[in-house]
Amino acid sequence: MKAHINTILIAIAIVITASIFSNAYLNRGKKQNSINVTGLGSRDFVSDLIVWSGNCTRKNLVLKQAYAELDADRETIKKYLSDKGVPSESIVFSSVSIEKESSDTYDNSGNRSGSVFTGYRLQQLVQIESKDVDRIEGISREVSQLINQGVEFYSHTPEYYYTKLAALKVEMIAEATKDAKNRAAKIAENAGSGVGRLKTAEMGVFQIVAQNSSEEYSWGGSFNTTAKRKTASITVKLDYEVE
Length: 243
Hints:
The protein is of the alpha+beta class and 243 residues long. It has helices spanning 2-26, 63-83, 133-140, 144-148, 165-190; strands at residues 34-46, 49-60, 91-93, 97-106, 112-130, 153-155, 159-161, 195-210, 229-242. β4 (97-106) and β5 form a beta hairpin.
């Protein structure tokens, strides 16, 4: 009985193998039945949200005095920004960071002999998030006015964002899909065929770079935040049947 079962299984395997090789032989000369194309969608846009920050610092041998000086600086910064038209709710101050500083001392032979406490250094970050991009951008370039008022202030590079990015991305995907379909139709036309149903669709990497720049694209996607004017792009890969 076992021998009969083995014989039957071997026979079935032979039939299946023969069928596979037969189909491969019959289809060996047939052309590919699909078209793979990539479409591109891109948009230029101007950022509508700016995030700008800076930090002020004070140093004093007495911690209480350092705090008092930093409090005075904070009030000066608030008034300066308010006079420039920045709403108070847009101004956010972080908690104060404290660092004890010291300097090394050396003996007559040049060897380090110890250290001397030189004071407490206090720092505080201020950040502004606003849709009034031009106004905040201008303020970020005029911080020397704060320095002239005795505030030790360090300005950071503004960051630019776009609040309608989700809607923009949808438009770009539609554009990239249309571009890919047109490419497929042209290829099929030149080959004397037609475009059939869509088999697969795959979205590529989303990129945002500065306009008119030599900024390189990244395989993982670029997201520029330093430029106010940007260019966004996305690719879509489509696989169509050929009719």
